[in-house]
Amino acid sequence: MDGQVRAGRFGDRPGMTCTDRVTGRNTAEGPRGSPGMTTNEPSRHTRRFGRIGLWSTALASASPSRRTEIEEAAAELEELGYGSLWIGGSPGVDRAEPLLAATSRITVGTSIMSIWQHRAEDVATQHARLNSAHGGRFVLGLGVSHAEAAQDDATREELRRRPYSAMRRYLDGLDAAPQPVPPQERALAALGPRMLELSRDRALGALPYLVTAEHTARAREVLGADALLAPELKVVLGSDPERARATARDYLRRYLALANYRNSWLRMGFGEDDLADGGSDRLLDAVYAFGDADAVRERVGSFLDAGADHVALQVVTDDLSSVLPLPQWRALAEALLPG
To answer: What's this model's pTM, rounded to 2 decimal places?
Structure first.
């Protein structure tokens, strides 16, 4: 990668500030209609979370031996200009503390914490403590998880039949706690219309996972103009398309076995054949960004154009469980973040 950002220009009216849709850089006026630019002011959510954040399960490590490594990485990512760090998997609130302690500006969120693994009252207490200590920079990302991952039959059945009702009850618990979690400090993993509506009405907004730009546009219609919309987008950097697809397919297999993602993709218009054998090329191209950082930049732009306030990038490599992909994060920062 040459590190150069190839930005178009967009001059609409005399005196208008022109802004790169991905980096947020101001530019001089230029020919109307060139790609990559917008005259829109950033939303309040973009100002809070930044246009670009990172999603990583490796940031969730609870190993004391890795705390220093994770803290140093968080500090560097803040300096590089990322707006938010999303702790992937199913982390507890405590996993955010090292990242918050190592930084001073960046927003940190869970993406997502399973409502079945943590009592609402306990979570509310932890949330209040973290935000009091770290200037309100923590956002509680919540999700109903997956029936396939449930540890008992009763939970499994409720996940299959009533995920929406389960989330409503959990939000009721957060509201009723001695130290409630305000709606503007929580967000929901939401794919279908009912959960999107709930994220609009009882939370800051939605954190969709494994979605397309087209889903993002439909989600914005459901959410309206004011709710947060922060989809995750997977990234495989590299110049070898065959190897990149193999890496992407190997990682996607675990999600293809989960009914809620399968149902979501079917609602988006994919067929059962797209969900076989690690996913079709069509599916991979819709939920991943492939190529160099400039190619990723264009894909991010398509999500922002569709209505996202913020895009959380998940760099996919052959080892995601523990290795922090710092070289890839640095390369993306060079192309995607304000210089």
So the answer is: 0.89
